[in-house]
Amino acid sequence: MSNRTQTKTDAQTLPGGSMETTPFDEFGLPLATEPMEARSAEALPGGEDLWQYEPKWDGFRCLAFKERDHVALRAKSGKPLGRYFPEVVAALAALPAERFVLDGELVIDLDGEFSFEALQMRLHPAESRIRKLAAATPARLIAFDMLLTPDGESLVGAPLSERRRRLEAFFGGMGEPTGLGLSERTLDRGEAEAWLAHAGQGAIDGVVAKSLTGTYAVGERAMVKVKRLRTADCVVGGFRYESDRREVGSLLLGLYDENGLLDHVGFTATISDDERPALTRQLEALREPPGFTGNAPGGPSRWSTDRTGQWEPVRPKLVVEVRFDQVTGNRFRHGTKLLRWRPDKAPRQCTFEQLSG
């Protein structure tokens, strides 16, 4: 690591006023290293292969790089995360190990539960706001893999069994470090199934399976992720047109709260092309404000960049059954899959009680 290039790729002020710089050549692995990803499956793998099962933590995926006093956090997209989580940068900088690269998940614990909304609030342009939130709701990194050891050895080509052993040894020498935690794991498929049964409403939103003999496949979908998929009957409280034509692009979904108000809870865009013309005419015939009598939709969905923020309210007459995976703050985290229409279901029967359990 001689002749290091002092090019600043990340720069932020750390607590105490010092400046963090992260030159590319300071690290044993390039900052552009892509994390190993997962492919979706309906069931956990088993059989003759040896698998390690881990909770799929409900946070931001993050690669954490350290070399002496330089620390960098990288999102799955490759974008820097350090300025949004200065307390995690400071915690990693304070560890006695001079170097490492860890793969993990950034999480924020609020009242015993992980809050994805609190993580999203960190993605703010104002540094003063970020620092206030960092002090009030500190984040931590839950590590589940090690790519570079404190002595500078790359583990990218090592099997998971060896990477996990080195990761546990790393934590064994750290005591209980602030801002850093070790992910659970099990080799027992039954225990992993129990985790999966409780996923979707708390700290985890599924289970990840990794081959114990597999190497760290940079940028490849070499892991298997399984989420607990559930269904709910929802009222259509509005719709959005497609951005390029006057046909329905997505349905806005609602559930009735305990006060009888219809709250917006998410959307579904899995509408077949054959169904769009007739469905558009049906929705336009039902167009009438307010659509949602409780919490209403805001701007464009964060999961889509081509969908307009304008929406059309409709009378609460139509009910659809949708499949979802995760609920956060009484809203579906992701887009849902439309399973079927429910003309047999009264809209008032579509309540938040479906999301419990």
Word description of this protein:
With 357 residues, the chain is α+β, with helices and mostly antiparallel strands. The protein contains six helices and 20 strands. It has helices at 86-93, 116-121, 127-136, 160-172, 189-197, 276-285, and strands spanning 11-13, 19-21, 37-40, 51-57, 60-67, 70-75, 99-110, 113-114, 139-148, 180-182, 204-211, 221-226, 230-241, 248-256, 262-268, 312-313, 319-324, 327-328, 331-332, 337-341. Strands 5, 6, 7, 8, 9 and 10 form a six-stranded mixed β-sheet that branches.
Secondary-structure element pattern, one letter each: EEEEEEHEEHHEHEHEEEEEHEEEEE
| Rg result | 23 Å
For this structure, the CATH topology of the largest domain is D-amino Acid Aminotransferase, Chain A, domain 1
Count of separate DSSP helical elements: 6
Total tally of structural domains: 2
The SS-based structural class is: alpha+beta
Would you identify the regions where 5 or more consecutive residues have pLDDT less than 50?
1-24, 299-308
As an assembly, this protein is single chain
Q: How much helix, percentage-wise, in residues?
A: 10-25%
The average pLDDT value, as a whole number, equals: 87
CATH class descriptor name of the largest domain:
Alpha Beta
Biggest β-sheet strands, sense, barrel: 6 strands, mixed
CATH superfamily of the largest domain, called what? Answer: DNA ligase/mRNA capping enzyme
Our estimate of the beta-strand percent is 25-35%
